[in-house]
């Protein structure tokens, strides 16, 4: 088991970057969420997190020269990854309720349980394939190096493996992006790597078919 971050040791309702590396689907350099700061379960569950924007990130070298601005698609990626964490946490909440009879209403209950069961929760990320299917996000203000993006996602609809979220990102109390994001999660069968490539193609073909029929 990896060591807990200083943040996680000091607060029961926060998950720090070391845990997220262990739990997340994406790894460096595409791990875009630095910290999980809040969770509320319910009919429309909510997950909050943050991203520290650093001038050391490689895209700032060319976006733009002498005027570094965070690309909008990477803000959407932050929100998409946060939504992916929400999916894993909801699955783990179901396990806690089923196996222990524990009702998980918020992060104060969920996050300590995650820290005690990192391997079990990390297995959930390999039990499905998922990704950012589509997004309709509007960008209202530029995001610069040194900013801290406060992220929020709320699950509003589940339909045939597709999870619809309303999302927003703020900097310094000002809204910089908001809209909707759709993630898909599909449980893969036990297949060879060659078959896996075909299945991935089939996933994206089904996404295209759904888009064409809508």
Based on DSSP secondary structure assignment, what is the total number of beta strands? 6
How would a crystallographer describe the biggest sheet? 6 strands, antiparallel
Task: Please indicate the percent range of residues in DSSP E strands (runs of 2 or more).
Answer: 25-35%
Shape: globular
Q: What is Rg?
A: 18 Å
Q: Which regions contain 5 or more consecutive residues with pLDDT less than 50?
A: 1-11, 191-207
Mean pLDDT: 81
End-to-end separation: 45 Å
Q: Work out the helicity level.
A: 25-40%
**Helix count from the secondary structure assignment:** 6
Compressed to H and E, one letter per element, the order equals HHEEHHHEEEEH
Secondary structure class reads: alpha+beta
Strand order in the largest sheet = 1-2-4-5-6-3
Structure description:
With 214 residues, the protein is α+β, with helices and mostly antiparallel strands. Helix content is 38%, strand content 28%. The protein contains six helices and six strands, in the order ααββαααββββα. It has a six-stranded antiparallel sheet. A hairpin with a 5-residue loop joins strand 1 and strand 2. The chain starts with 5 loop residues before the first helix and ends with a helix. 27% of the residues are buried. Residues 1-11 and 191-207 have low confidence and may be disordered.
């Amino acid at each position: 088991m990896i060591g807990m971050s200083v943040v996680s040791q000091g607060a029961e309702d926060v998950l720090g970057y070391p845990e997220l590396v262990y739990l997340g689907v994406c790894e460096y350099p595409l791990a875009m969420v630095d910290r999980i700061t809040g969770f509320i379960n319910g009919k429309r569950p909510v997950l909050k997190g943050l991203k520290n924007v650093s001038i050391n990130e490689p895209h700032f070298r060319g976006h733009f020269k002498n005027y570094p601005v965070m690309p909008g698609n990477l803000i959407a990626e932050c929100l998409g990854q946060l939504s992916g964490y929400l999916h894993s946490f909801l699955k783990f909440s179901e396990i806690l309720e089923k196996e222990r009879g524990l009702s998980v209403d918020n992060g104060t209950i969920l996050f300590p349980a995650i820290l005690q069961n990192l391997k079990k929760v990390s297995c959930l990320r390999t039990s499905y394939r998922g990704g950012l299917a589509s997004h309709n996000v509007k960008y209202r203000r530029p995001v610069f190096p040194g900013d801290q993006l406060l992220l929020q996602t709320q699950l509003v609809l589940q339909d045939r493996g597709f999870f619809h979220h309303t999302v927003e990102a703020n900097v310094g109390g000002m809204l910089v992006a908001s809209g909707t994001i759709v993630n898909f999660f599909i449980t893969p069968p036990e297949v060879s790597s060659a078959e896996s490539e075909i299945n991935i193609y089939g996933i994206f073909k089904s996404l295209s078919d759904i888009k064409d029929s809508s």
